[in-house]
UniProtKB/TrEMBL annotation:
<dbReference type="GO" id="GO:0005524">
    <property type="term" value="F:ATP binding"/>
</dbReference>
<keyword id="KW-0547">Nucleotide-binding</keyword>
<dbReference type="GO" id="GO:0051301">
    <property type="term" value="P:cell division"/>
</dbReference>
<protein>
    <recommendedName>
        <fullName>DNA ligase</fullName>
        <ecNumber>6.5.1.1</ecNumber>
    </recommendedName>
</protein>
<keyword id="KW-0234">DNA repair</keyword>
<keyword id="KW-0436">Ligase</keyword>
<feature type="domain" description="ATP-dependent DNA ligase family profile">
    <location>
        <begin position="405"/>
        <end position="542"/>
    </location>
</feature>
<comment type="similarity">
    <text>Belongs to the ATP-dependent DNA ligase family.</text>
</comment>
<dbReference type="GO" id="GO:1903461">
    <property type="term" value="P:Okazaki fragment processing involved in mitotic DNA replication"/>
</dbReference>
<feature type="region of interest" description="Disordered">
    <location>
        <begin position="638"/>
        <end position="676"/>
    </location>
</feature>
<keyword id="KW-0131">Cell cycle</keyword>
<dbReference type="GO" id="GO:0003677">
    <property type="term" value="F:DNA binding"/>
</dbReference>
<dbReference type="GO" id="GO:0071897">
    <property type="term" value="P:DNA biosynthetic process"/>
</dbReference>
<keyword id="KW-0227">DNA damage</keyword>
<keyword id="KW-0067">ATP-binding</keyword>
<dbReference type="GO" id="GO:0006281">
    <property type="term" value="P:DNA repair"/>
</dbReference>
<dbReference type="GO" id="GO:0003910">
    <property type="term" value="F:DNA ligase (ATP) activity"/>
</dbReference>
């Protein structure tokens, strides 16, 4: 057999070499993945399919991988689908000729718009056979739908979706699909709609697709060289190399072409962090006390930095005479006489439009000889008269978009605490001590504009205590304690690492860290609050099952002004029924008055944690007989608009907090359930 000819193992035989990847082939794979819950089987199916792509249509590898992880582009491009239910229902109705009422009642019954689309499409009589959809074609169409803006956007989006749905399931058009069988099977309409909703419901995450891609590439290279199968060691090497490249350079747009050019085993040498491609920031583990820090870092040298309370910012810069270019052109990159710069949020969103003032001043903080860099910083609101840090709430009053330098009222100061790249070289694998030296060498602080995070290197309890108190006096949240030397002190992108510990002032009492939770539902207010929602149902996220598990009702910590704003935000995303991936008690009296799409994340504090039959958070992990962990006396702190719902506190973290608390308070009496 030649490389191009189909093999018996192929998941989708009806696909000729050189043709664009048929979308039906991807949907067949998705459908097989949907039928299993085993991660290894999913991985094998993905890898098998990607091998076929590499063999028959390698040019389409990028859109295929993107659709598999349900993305249209790398995060920094800021392109998202997440189209609302009503728009999709309209498109289904108009493209299949079924009334909106029918579609709505189907949705009420089935609870999965994908299946509703599959059913509606299969009922439709067809006049002519539409042209089959392809992966690159559909990726392009999704991009166009996501990018529409300005007047008439909604109509354009509906038209775009209608076109896709009319072409869906060309091979099955007119046939009756039984949506109760095989979860609706490989219907294209089903997967189109789920992609539009932003949720494929396959349990397929990047942690499966990434190793599948590495395996597929390695096997493909073997096949090309006429060799048999790679060894398990080689597979492990390929996987770890791709994973580590991806953590430094989370952009398939950059990695896939490089992988095809250099081969998977040479990828590591050829692909490094690049200014212009934001990496996911390293995060810290919470601790309850300074003594816990001393226990964890015993015998190691560490440093204590102020934990500034602002917004994380990753600043990228390339000077015009740096002999290189910014790897991506984020739309609002700041250009100056000296060079081009970008600023990214914790979520890799482009913040250039929010902070043009930072981008304008940036070149003045850079020493001669500093030609390119990636900085990890916190932007903090700054009191220009008192010359000190202002609380986080001040920063939140800044506009997020289209800010003009001349209009900026809330000034910010950038506090830099790490440097990940300098003058053409990635520094992430250097020790923190070295990175800090580079940082201090390459920049000049300017009062009220740019500063280095304050720190003290000490292992003495009293001195750390003093630093903590001083940090709080300086309006900081507490301390970040970081390992200084050796491989443990390297920068670990996207990890909540043991080597960074946070000690917050308010840890010293209560449960410790605050939680970031997703709003799933609300209750109408009573008394003064009748025009708004008075209380809300919150949930944590379980990345393993991709479910949202409820954790508390909350009615405290809201001012009237906030309740009013929240109401106007939330009423836009009301849905008729809970999503199938919401896990909550089924008791009648436990149901909220309205349900929402999972969109908003709120930071919440709690007095302590307890088990409750009413909530389901971490129910599988705490062995509480179906009871979940819930928060007692939860209090609203603020909205976290820098976090997406799937970045909310995880069930695992809540289970750990509960277990830690239990081991401390074992001998206390039973706790009561919350009530508001
Ligand atoms: P939090 O609600 O505490 O900000 P988080 O999940 O956003 O939690 P953590 O890992 O808990 O992030 O805390 C680290 C955050 O603290 C960073 O994301 C950054 O925004 C901020 N920060 C402030 N000062 C520092 C510093 N000196 N070093 C590292 N991070 C700092």
């Amino acid at each position: 057999t030649t490389l191009a000819s189909p093999t018996t193992k192929d998941l989708y035989p009806d696909w000729k070499p050189g043709e664009p990847v048929p979308y039906a082939a991807l949907c067949t794979t998705f459908s097989k993945i949907e039928m299993t819950t085993k991660r290894l089987e999913m991985l094998a199916l993905c890898s098998l399919f990607l091998r076929q792509v590499l063999r028959l249509s390698p040019d389409d590898l990028l859109p295929t991988v993107l659709l598999m992880i349900n993305k249209l582009a790398a995060d920094y491009a800021g392109i998202e689908l997440g189209i609302g239910e009503s728009l999709i229902m309209k498109a289904i109705s108009e493209s299949t000729g079924r009334s909106l009422q029918h579609i709505k009642s189907d949705q009420n019954e089935i609870g999965d718009l994908g299946l509703v689309a599959a059913k509606s499409r299969s009922k439709q009589p067809t006049m002519f056979k539409p042209k089959a959809l392809t992966v690159p074609g559909i990726h392009k169409a999704f991009l166009a739908i996501a990018k529409f803006e300005g007047q008439g956007t909604q109509g354009k989006k509906v038209d775009g979706i209608k076109k896709l749905l009319s072409a869906a399931d060309a091979h099955n058009a007119g046939k009756n699909i039984d949506i109760t069988k095989d979860k609706g099977g490989p219907s294209e309409a089903k997967f189109i709609v789920r992609t539009l909703e932003g949720k494929l419901r396959l349990g397929l995450a990047e942690k499966t697709v990434l190793p599948a891609l590495a395996q597929a590439m390695l096997s493909h290279e073997y096949l090309q060289k006429g060799k048999k199968v790679p060894s398990t060691t080689e597979i492990a090497q390929a996987e770890s190399s791709l994973k580590s490249v991806y953590s430094e350079l989370p952009s398939y747009e950059v990695i896939i072409p490089a992988m095809l050019e250099h081969g998977i085993m040479n990828l590591r040498e050829n692909c490094h962090l690049q200014p212009g491609v934001p990496l996911k920031p390293m995060l810290a583990k919470p601790t309850k006390s300074i003594t816990e820090v001393l226990d964890r870092f015993e015998g190691k040298d560490f440093t204590c930095e102020y934990k500034y309370d602002g917004e994380r910012a990753q600043i990228h810069f390339v000077a015009h005479d740096a002999d290189m270019e910014l790897a991506t052109a984020a739309p609002a990159a700041g250009k100056s006489e000296k060079g081009v710069s970008n600023i990214f949020s914790r979520n890799s969103e482009d913040l250039s439009k929010k902070y043009p003032d930072i981008l304008a001043k940036l070149p003045t903080w850079v020493k001669e000889g500093t030609k390119s860099f990636v900085l990890d910083c916190e932007t903090v609101a700054w009191d220009t008269e008192e010359k000190k840090v202002l609380p986080f709430q001040q920063l939140m009053t800044r506009k997020r978009k289209d800010v003009k330098v001349e209009d900026v009222k809330v000034k910010v100061c950038v506090f830099a605490f790490d440097i990940l790249y300098l003058n053409g070289e990635a520094l992430v694998n250097k020790s923190f001590r070295e990175r800090r030296e580079h940082l201090l060498d390459a920049f000049v602080p300017v009062e009220g504009e740019f500063a280095f995070a304050k720190y003290g290197n000490t292992n003495e309890l009293e001195e750390i205590q003093t630093l903590l108190e001083d940090s709080v006096k300086a309006s900081c949240e507490g301390l970040m304690v970081k390992m200084l030397d050796g491989p443990e002190s390297s920068y670990e992108p996207s990890r909540r690492s043991q080597n960074w510990l946070k000690v917050k002032k308010d840890y010293l009492a209560g449960v410790g860290d605050s939680l970031d939770l997703v709003v799933l539902g609300a209750y109408f207010g009573k008394g003064k609050r009748t025009s708004w929602y008075g209380a809300f149902l919150l949930a944590c996220y379980n990345p393993n099952t991709q479910n949202y598990e409820t954790v508390c009702n909350i009615g405290t910590g809201f001012s009237e002004a906030i309740l009013e704003t929240l109401h106007s935000q939330l009423k836009e995303i009301v849905i008729d029924r809970p999503k199938p991936f919401y896990v909550h008690s089924s008791g009648n009296k436990d149901q909220p008055d309205v349900w929402f799409e999972p969109r908003y994340v709120w930071e919440v504090k709690t007095a302590d944690l307890t088990l409750s039959p009413r909530y389901k958070a971490a129910a599988d992990e705490v062995a509480g007989n179906g009871k979940g962990v819930s928060l007692r006396f939860p209090r609203f702190i603020k909205e976290r608009d820098d976090k997406k719902p799937d970045q909310a506190s995880s069930s695992r973290m809540i289970a750990e907090m509960y277990q830690r608390q239990e081991s401390v308070t074992k001998n206390k009496g039973p706790s009561v359930d919350d009530d508001f």
